[in-house]
Amino acid sequence: MMPFIKIYQYSIPSYWLMCMLGLLASCILLYARRRRFNIAADDTLHIVLFGVIGAMIGAKTLYLITIAPELLRHASEIDWSYRTIELLFSGGYVFYGGLIGGFLAAAVYCCRYRISLRAAADFYAPALPLFHVFGRIGCFLAGCCWGIEAPWGVVYTHSLAAPNGVTLFPVQLTEAVCNLAICMVLLLRERRLSGRQPTGGALLLYAALYACVRFLLEFWRGDAVRGHFLFFSTSQWISVLILFAIGIYFWKIAPRRQL
Q1: Is pLDDT at 257 greater than 60 in this prediction?
Q2: H/E element holding 166?
Q3: Which one is predicted more confidently, 136 or 84?
Q4: What is the pLDDT of residue 28?
Q5: pLDDT digits (tens, 9 = 90+) for 51-88
Q6: Looking at per-residue confidence, does 80 or 124 come out higher?
Q7: Cβ burial 237-255 (10 Å sphere, 16+ → b, else e)
Q8: Which biological processes are named by the entry's GO terms (predicted)?
Q9: What is the Cα–Cα distance from 179 to 24, expressed in whole angstroms?
Q10: pLDDT (0 to 100) of residue 161
Q11: In degrees rounded to 5, what are phi and psi of residue 147?
Q12: Which of 90, 105, 116, 147 suits a disulfide with 169, CB 3.0-4.6 Å?
C-alpha cells in the first residue's frame, strides 16, 4: 500500500514508523499503569530498552534460522558480497523470535535489579499486543507478511514484497484486530483482579491467546519464507509448543493458582 510515508522531503519506511508509534503507545500505557505495580519510572524505561534490544536480536536470529535451509541449498549460487550480507541483516524478522528474545532480556534485567518477575509479567503483558497492533499495520502498509489469494481483500500496486495486482486476504489487519482484542482482554482482567498480588498470569494468558490466533492465521498467510515442517509453519509449531508448555504448567506446577 504505502511502503514509504513522505514527511516534508523525507521518505520514512512505513513499517518502522508504525513500530515507533507502537512503542510510543506502549510506553504511554505502561507509564499510566506503573504505580499499580510499584515499578519505578527508570526501571520501566530500562526494561523496555532491554526488551527492544533483545527482541531485535531474537527476531533476526529466528528469521535466519528459518531461511537457513534455503540459503544452504543455494549457497553456491549466491553472490556473498557486502551488499548481500547487508540486505540479509537489514530486513526480515520473525515476531516469535522477538517475543522470546525480548522476554529473556527483560527477565535478565529484572533478576539483576531484583524486580518481581510476576509483577513485571502482569505489568508489561498488555503492552505487547498493543505494540503488535501497530507492527501489523506497518506490515500491511509495507506489503510484507501478506495473505493468500482470495476472492475479496486488498490489491497492492506498489508493494516491494507482496505480489502486485492480486487480491490478497488482509491477514495483517486481521491479526492487528486480534491483538487489539487481546490487549482489551488483559486490561479487563487486570481491572477485575485489581488489588490482588501479581501472579504473572497476564503474560501466560497473552501467550496462550496469541498462540491460538497465530496458529489459525498462519493458514491464511501467503508469503513463503516462514519455514515449514510436516504441514505446519515455524510459527505454528512454536504456537503448539507454547500452548503445550502452558498446559503442563497449570497441570503439574500451579494447579491451584488464581490467574
Answers
A1: no
A2: none
A3: 136
A4: 96
A5: 999 999 999 888 888 877 777 776 777 776 666 666 66
A6: 124
A7: bbbeebeeeeeeeeeeeee
A8: lipoprotein biosynthetic process
A9: 17
A10: 80
A11: -95, 180
A12: 147
Cell of 62: 529466528
> What SS3 class is residue 117?
helix
Give the pLDDT score at 160.
76
Q: Which residue has the cell 526488551?
A: 51
pLDDT tens, residue by residue, 236-255:
999 999 999 998 888 766 65
What phi and psi values does residue 164 have, to the nearest 5 degrees?
Answer: -90, 150
- Measured CA to CA, the distance from residue 75 to residue 92 in angstroms comes to 18
Q: Which helix (H) or strand (E) holds 28?
A: helix 14-33
Mean pLDDT of 27-50: 92
The residue ranges of DSSP E strands in 54-197, in sequence order, are: 149-155, 167-168
Instruction: Decide the pairing of beta strands 228-229 and 167-168.
Output: unpaired
Residue 37 CA to residue 193 CA, distance in Å, equals 13
| φ, ψ of residue 155 in degrees (nearest 5) | -125, 120
How crowded is residue 18: how many other Cβ atoms within 10 Å of its Cβ? 23
Question: With contact defined as beta carbons under 8 Å apart, do 68 and 110 qualify?
Answer: no
- Concatenated DSSP letters for 55-73? HHHHHHHHHHHHHHHHHHH
The CA angle 18-110-194, to the nearest 5 degrees, is 75
Would you state the pLDDT for residue 87?
A: 60
CA distances from 187 to 56, 184, 192 (A): 26, 5, 9
Query: Considering only CA atoms, which of 225, 179, 174, 169 is closest in space to residue 26?
Result: 179
